[in-house]
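tool_call: predict_structure(chain=1)
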Amino acid sequence: MRKNLWMRVCCVMALCIVAPGIAAQEAETDSLVQQEGYSLDEVVVSTPFMVRKTTATSPFQALSRSQLEQQGVTDMADALRRFSGVNVKDYGGAGGMKTVSVRSLGAQHTAVAYDGITLTDCQSGQIDFSRFSLDNVSELSLAVGDNDEIFLPARTVASAASVRLQTLQPDFSTRSWHVGAGLKTGSFGLANPFVRYDQQLSSNVSMSVFGDFMRADNLYPFTLVNGKYTTEERRQNNYIETWRGEWNLYARPAKHAVLNGKVYYYDSFRELPGPVILYNSKSNEELTERNFFSQLHFQTYWGNQWSLQWNGKFNWAYSHYHDRGDAYPGGAMDNRYYQREYYTSAAVLYTPWEHWAFSYAADYSFNNLTSDATSGVKPYRHTILQTLSARYRTPRLTLTALLLGSIYQNNARGGEAARDARRLSPSVSVSWKPWEVADFRLRASYKDIFRVATFTENYFDRWGSRDVRPEVARQFNVGATYGMSSRSSWVESLAGSADVYYNYVEDKIVAIPYNMFFWTTVNLGHVDIWGADLHGEAVFRLSERHRLPVTVNYTWQHAVDMTDPSSVYYKDQIPYTPEHSGAFSVAWENPWLNVSFHVTGAGERYASVQNIASNRLDGYAECGLALYRTFQWKGVGFSVRGDVQNLGNKQYSIVKSYPMPGRSYKLTVSINL
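tool_result:
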């Protein structure tokens, strides 16, 4: 199996070299034209997060690398919990499966872009964030709906919300190479070494390599309550081992052009602990996953107000589910799944006048899935997405409009194919600054979005149906933003946003976990989602070398099933959606030892569509503490950090019958040359 995989890797790397038409877009913050329509001498331009958060025409949140450290963020799931409107499903433990739903629309409505190109999983439609390491991430952002970013591939805007991960890019201002390495170790057998190497190959070409290994036993203790009996148990069958690596190429073939490439590989083996039901926590399930993708991105700007980007990707994924038990013929179940995707995209931007910009993007992708599961169906899908966008922008007013055309053509070998689907999806957004002096803005947005069923929902695992209807979601948002910064005041910076929203979902598809790999699919028909998101952040300068960054987020969501007034779950909150959730963090930065304290929490949720006591999950609040220090010694940079997670040793579950770890410790040591 591994030999065949590496043969595929070699073939695809060769394909990427000879076919630069396969390309993948880098994040717009690294665009040739940050202010779209203006020629810039430098290729890489960054917009400060403070400006981006306040000027966006629809909700936008972001965390820089320094903010991740200030807020005591320990992993990718912890970072996402710091965003308002986000619900993270976490099965517990280092490397445990973690998926994200934004504003109760479901994980399949959340696009995940890695260095600008959207990740896909045609089998389940959701991305497991435990696959990615914060050690190689420079920026993490969340955009809800569409805003003033219009020079994007069509697939980036084909979801209700998008999470974007931007990896670290090398800086050769002081030397032509850099080496960084570190080790994380902690409770429950955690060991996680990582290394990064950057090399400048010429004045216009450079590269970077990043790799890490992680293993953990995850045999953490938990308290099991069964009526009047209480016992102390330990999580079993929860070992995980992962390997991850990527190679990046950065080139400037011309003054106004960039060519970037990436090769990524992920390999993991994990035991699946299974739900804790009464005194039966035994599980024999195992999951092996491998993922390889390669991508290229080419972008250029011409002096006649035209810009072009050419993007694309090849993706290969393998998963092997294994379960031992007398209930299976031969004493075991072995299901293997293979995914393949070919993707390409082209987009043009035209800025004929100072305040106007127009963009057109066309994407094509081919996905197929093969499996030795008993169904024998081998589905494949052709997808064509096109967007036409327009934007009018002045210092005080921004208006955008976008029309997305989606065509999905389904076919299958060895069985009946699901229905084809197509739709036109419009979106509009506006941001207005009423006063010239204060950076206070009002914004409003509307987006119509369309999601087809995944291959699992259509075909597989005994719950699939070819008649599953596509989801249609309509998003309405009204909000306000404020931002300020001052070098003379003790308030160094201040930013905040408040948004209220209403989502109307027709034929909503809800996935309920049967275990960590199989899911039961339920179509609720009609869901109303009312909500409010509040976000605030400030940096207080206590003295010249003492700063106090503070961040707070709060989310209220009322997401109820409105399908059938006669049903027992009519107007019940949809599964795994807390009505109240939030996060708070405060850090003290000083010359000696930086300290960060943070709290994340959520109210009660329900594990099924019916809101009864047996399905209720209690609310929780988890506290954490981080101590960190970065210093130089003989020209070498050192970083030391210690974390205490779940400081109060709180017993809780995010997914029913999957207890989260109690108090745990983590130590991180790294060096940079």
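agent: Confidence is low (pLDDT under 50) at residues 1-47. Proceeding to next step.
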